[in-house]
Amino acid sequence: MNNQLQKLKKEYMNAPIPEELDFTVQKAIKEGVWFSRRKKWGFHKIKVTAASVAAAFLIMIAGANSSMAFAAALSKIPVVGDIINVLTFREYRIDEKTYDSHIKVPEIKGLENKDLENSLNKKYLDEGKQLYEDFIADMGNLKENGGGHLGVHSGYTVVTDNDRILSISRYTVNTVASSSTTMKYDTIDKVNEVLVTLPSLFKDDSYVNIISENIKEQMVDENESDPNKVYWVKGIEQSSLIDLFEEISQDQNFYINSENKLVISFDKYEVAPGYMGIVEFVIPTEILSELLVGDAYIK
Amino acid sequence: MEEAGLTNIITEYVIHNKEQLYRLAFSYVKNQDDALEVMHESITKAFSKKNTLKTPEYLKTWFYRIIVNTAMDMLRKKKRVVVSDHETLSLYEAGIPDQYTDMDLQKALNNLPIQYRSIVVLRYFEDLEIKEIAEILNVNMNTVKTRLYKSLKMLRIQIDDERKGE
């Protein structure tokens, strides 16, 4: 190789490696393995037989500390006595060389409050259809303009399912170049059969401020113990001019986890650089106890 | 290949080659945040598309291809780089190279159309064979050779080993 190319190569090899690379790679591996496992499970329709119910109990024991993928697989097996459940109602799928779409529409069954059941199921179906139609339109556009890569994956996970609460998360991953992931959550009170909204949990709207302040503290703390974890928040040095996180919205994404704790969730890019992905904060119940309407959901 | 085996192979490969893969991503998108984003995206994509990897010996070219496609899609999306169409490319191939001094070499490289720059990167900085480059970029070997030759011409680099990779 001649001198000039040597020089260029040297410059190429000298591209500085950012500290965040390790963290980004670790996180991507985790997500990648998780998603690909879930996908694999999605392909095998679980037949409801006595054997599979037995298997389900085995998995439950084996996976006591189980991942969300386990939870997703479990949700498909109706367990005796579990009346309200979530099933896959419809799937849209496109599988072409560079266009790839898989949309799973959930359906809630077993609620006596049919208005609630129907309105949720209609929302899921409408949103699924819309995603699918948008994908078809985008694919058409791309094809006309010389092609490209496009993907959309959407599905759901039962996050919490206990005596009182059913929390479902629905995810949509859009892949054009970088992917954007959005999450939506619905939490249902199974006893009273009502949809739980964030404002409905609290006596007044002072929760916005109290939760936001707590999240900001958590962000700064996380960054102090691991500098790779970057949030767009005051107190963490920012590399670019960007809008900093001020406060959650009144109807911020949330769910109630299996430990009866409130979890606030942010989409990719909402409060942190893309490599952080979706971020979640568990809000300590102590700081909420004064504000809560009751202790039925959050303990 | 068993799925679990592939997962482990990909994980190992990514962990051991992350810096090299990052440099490749960076050479396309030219900034840190985007390069990290390309890394994140490519790694998750690799796992979800692992059944397209036929045998582990193609792992490197397979992974490079994912990185290159992801980076190109990002450039397209951000429209920072116009990915030249065939007509523009053939203008380059007719070849009236700009005049550059040695000092401007890096700049000249950056100014090459992306399809040309990536061939220089893959051939001379990543030391890949023509055949491998053709696979990564999904073009035929003759196209790679032509573009490599033109690139060097545009960069005004005299070279005697440009055919070595055949």
Task: Report on the architecture of this protein.
The complex is a heterodimer of chains A (299) and B (166). By secondary structure, chain A is an alpha+beta fold. Chain A has helices at 3-13, 20-43, 50-62, 68-74, 114-144, 207-225; strands at residues 85-95, 99-109, 150-161, 165-175, 179-189, 194-196, 254-256, 262-266, 279-283. Chain A has three domains: 17-82, no CATH class; 86-196, 2-Layer Sandwich (Heat Shock Protein 90), CATH 3.30.565.40; 199-287, Alpha-Beta Complex (Actin, Chain A, domain 4). In chain A, 35% of the residues lie in helices and 24% in strands. A six-stranded mixed β-sheet of chain A has the order 1-2-3-4-5-6, sandwiched between helices. Chain A has a three-stranded antiparallel β-sheet with strand order 7-8-9, with helices on one face. The longest helix of chain A has 31 residues, at 114-144. By secondary structure, chain B is mainly alpha-helical. Chain B has eight helices and no strands. Chain B is globular. The two termini of chain B are 30 Å apart. At the A-B interface, helix 1 and helix 2 of A face helix 1, helix 2, helix 3, helix 5 and helix 6 of B.
CATH architecture of the largest domain in chain A: 2-Layer Sandwich
Order of helices and strands of chain A: HHHHEEHEEEEHEEE
Largest sheet of chain B: none
Largest sheet of chain A: 6 strands, mixed
How many domains of chain A?
3
**What is the H level of CATH, i.e. the homologous superfamily of the largest domain in chain A?**
Fervidobacterium nodosum Rt17-B1 like
Poorly predicted regions of chain A are 39-81
Shape of chain A: flat
Approximate strand percentage of chain B? under 5%
* End-to-end C-alpha gap of chain B: 30 Å
CATH topology of the largest domain in chain A: Heat Shock Protein 90
Which CATH top level class of the largest domain in chain A fits?
A: Alpha Beta
Average pLDDT rating of chain A: 79
- In the CATH hierarchy, the architecture of the largest domain in chain B is Orthogonal Bundle
The CATH C-level class name of the largest domain in chain B: Mainly Alpha
Percent helix range of chain B: 55-70%
List the total number of helices of chain A.
6
Overall domain count of chain B: 2
